[in-house]
């Protein structure tokens, strides 16, 4: 007769990339922090396959692609990762795919994807290609299986292909995770909420438009994940207004054109011609900016990698917080952020294209380091050192390229925007402008520092609402999260074919009861109104605990066991719609306890940690990887020390 500790139990709600990344970090940290003789049972709860989860599941259109090159996608820590746990390098998507053509080593556990189309894609995938989401699904499936294989034998993982509906249990006792398809809940010592990107019921504005569509027999699609959208009711030739010009629009454009049988023909000059099937609707697209997101770069740095961070890193964030005053992001923080992005841009320009500069780099950077971003001397320095205006970084023009422009006719604007898009694609695919990639890398570095700034609690409520969650989020997406260049060339072909029409900036949506049509107007073509029988909100659902479609979060919210992030000061109150968690370890803030719930942790997209991306570009010290490592170490320590000697179980050996 001997005694042994009871098994520790962890339930993870959600089995997508965020949960997979956490498992990888548990496996990496277990040799140091977990007793190899102790049993740990991990339960994953998700109706979608573990690894890819919902967003990256294999069962979606082969037309849908990533907006990152294959070599720029990794799930693994590397030498840039500032983590307490061990760095465990692993292959990028491109490096992993190379094994199937014999161009690279095999990565255990080795198995060819069962889908022959995915396997064929992986065998020809180049690092500079933009993979299908189904290829990414296969990669994430492998990362999940590799994480399982690296866990100690006493750590087991079980997947429950169902939905978690609620969590109950006292803060000082076991937690019960209730499932949709079984009466008996899972009992756990700790619960991790890692559901990823969530849908939400339509906001009031969308409800109004949906009601209009029902009354008049029209089509209306509120914000939705593109792979889940039912577009079958849209008729050939039907006029459709799409509000939103980001990645959701690009997906919808593909599904409604190629997805309906149209094809693209490559001409002798490299341009594309669209050959319609006759089943396409007519798409009228506009947004606040009125232009599509900037094309992704398709080249590598030609100079050395810029040493980042330099002007906006932990030291600068700590210094801002130490001032002890309320901070306005645009006034107090953006000048440092802009200077960091500028440093990345000019570092690449001076090192890779010195013939287009007029000062030695040491002289330029010495002066650059001393000056404030908006100082007159900084403008003079850049003008003197960078003769070509196209090589200078101008954030205002980049952010709002249609500001101050108006066109007399819709046709004149179509010509203008086609030229704008063509020039953007050409620049983003021309290595002579690799300084844009230097700026992009600095933009990623800036993004990685912002969770620490937010956690410091010094940003005013209005600045958090209007500047961080508002302007900055849109600016970052516009600059860094654009489509591959070939998608924008397809957009140009669709525009020339009359399938896509551009509405311009500042688009306003209305309704006309007399005709039963949706209307769109904007500032770019004054006096022009488009009437359509369908309206699509071409962007993803915004976070909202009040309207979330996730039953577990909805139930906890209604029970007062979690709270929305609310930032208030004397001048403003900001309700972000995000789940409030501890900035240090992700513990859920439970209003009924007056603070953190010791047994519930939430990670990723729905939370106010704002470390959203579950996978990342290599060598960018990804915030999500840092958070995964910290949480994995915390939960292993807590589960190791949780049981007292009175809680052991007896076993015959």
Automatic annotation (TrEMBL):
InterPro entries: HpyO/CreE_NAD-binding, L-asp_N-monooxygenase_NS-form
Domain of life: Bacteria
Domain FAD-dependent urate hydroxylase HpyO/Asp monooxygenase CreE-like FAD/NAD(P)-binding, first and last residues per copy: 11-197
PANTHER family: BLR0577 PROTEIN
Protein's name in the database: FAD/NAD(P)-binding protein
Organism: Streptomyces chartreusis
């Amino acid at each position: 007769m001997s005694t042994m500790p009871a098994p520790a139990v962890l339930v993870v709600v959600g089995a997508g990339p965020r949960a997979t990344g956490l498992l990888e970090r548990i496996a990496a940290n277990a040799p140091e922090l977990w007793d190899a003789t102790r049993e740990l049972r991990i339960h994953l709860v998700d109706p979608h396959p573990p690894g890819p989860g919902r967003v990256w599941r294999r069962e979606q259109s082969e037309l849908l692609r990533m907006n990152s090159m294959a070599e720029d996608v990794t799930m693994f820590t590397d030498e840039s990762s500032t983590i307490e746990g061990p760095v465990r390098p692993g292959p990028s998507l491109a490096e992993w795919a190379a094994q199937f053509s014999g161009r690279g080593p095999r990565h255990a556990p080795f198995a060819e994807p069962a889908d022959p189309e995915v396997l064929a894609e992986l065998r020809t995938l180049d690092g500079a290609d933009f993979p299908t989401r189904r290829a990414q699904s296969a990669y994430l499936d492998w990362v999940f299986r590799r994480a399982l294989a690296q866990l100690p034998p006493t750590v087991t993982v079980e997947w429950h292909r169902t939905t978690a509906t609620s969590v109950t249990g006292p803060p000082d006792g076991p937690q019960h995770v209730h499932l949709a398809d079984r009466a008996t809940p899972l009992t756990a010592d700790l619960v991790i909420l890692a559901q990823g990107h969530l849908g939400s019921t339509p906001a009031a504005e969308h409800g109004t438009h949906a009601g209009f569509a029902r009354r008049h027999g029209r089509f209306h699609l509120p914000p939705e994940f593109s792979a889940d959208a039912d577009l079958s009711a849209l008729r050939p030739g039907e006029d459709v207004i799409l509000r939103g010009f980001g990645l959701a629009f690009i997906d919808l454009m593909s599904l409604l054109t190629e997805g309906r049988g149209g094809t693209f023909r490559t001409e002798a000059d490299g341009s594309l011609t669209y050959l319609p099937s006759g089943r396409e609707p007519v798409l009228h697209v506009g947004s606040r900016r009125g232009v599509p997101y900037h094309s992704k770069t398709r080249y590598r740095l030609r100079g050395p990698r810029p040493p980042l961070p330099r002007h906006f890193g932990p030291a600068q964030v700590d210094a801002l917080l130490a001032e002890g005053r309320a901070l306005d992001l645009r006034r107090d923080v953006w000048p440092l952020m802009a200077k960091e992005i500028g440093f990345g841009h000019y570092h690449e320009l001076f090192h890779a294209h010195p013939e287009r500069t007029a000062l030695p780099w040491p002289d330029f950077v010495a002066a650059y380091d001393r000056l404030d971003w908006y100082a007159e001397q900084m403008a003079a320095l850049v003008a003197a050192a960078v003769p070509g205006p196209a090589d200078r970084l101008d954030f205002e023009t980049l952010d709002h390229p249609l500001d101050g422009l108006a066109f007399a006719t819709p046709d004149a604007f179509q010509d203008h925007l086609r030229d704008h898009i063509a020039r953007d694609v050409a620049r983003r695919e021309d290595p002579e402008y690799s300084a844009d990639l230097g700026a992009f890398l600095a933009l990623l570095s800036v993004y990685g520092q912002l969770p620490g700034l937010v956690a410091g609690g010094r940003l005013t409520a209005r600045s958090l609402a209007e500047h961080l969650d508002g302007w900055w989020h849109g600016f970052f997406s516009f600059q860094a999260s654009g489509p591959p260049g070939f998608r924008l060339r397809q957009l140009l072909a669709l525009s020339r074919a009359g399938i896509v029409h551009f509405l311009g900036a500042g688009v306003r949506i209305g309704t006309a009861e007399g005709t039963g049509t949706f209307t769109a107007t904007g500032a770019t073509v004054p006096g022009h109104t488009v009437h359509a029988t369908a309206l699509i909100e071409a962007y993803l659902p915004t976070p909202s605990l009040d309207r979330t479609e996730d039953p577990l979060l909805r139930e906890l919210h209604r029970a007062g066991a979690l709270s929305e992030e609310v930032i208030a000061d004397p001048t403003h109150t900001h309700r972000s719609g995000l789940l409030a968690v501890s900035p240090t370890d992700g513990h859920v803030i439970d209003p009924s306890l007056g603070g953190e719930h010791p047994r519930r942790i939430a990670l990723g997209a729905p939370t106010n940690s704002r470390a959203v991306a579950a996978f990342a570009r290599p060598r960018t010290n990804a915030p999500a990887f840092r958070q995964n490592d910290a949480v994995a170490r915390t939960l292993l320590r807590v589960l190791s020390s949780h049981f007292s000697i009175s809680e052991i179980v007896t076993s015959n050996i």
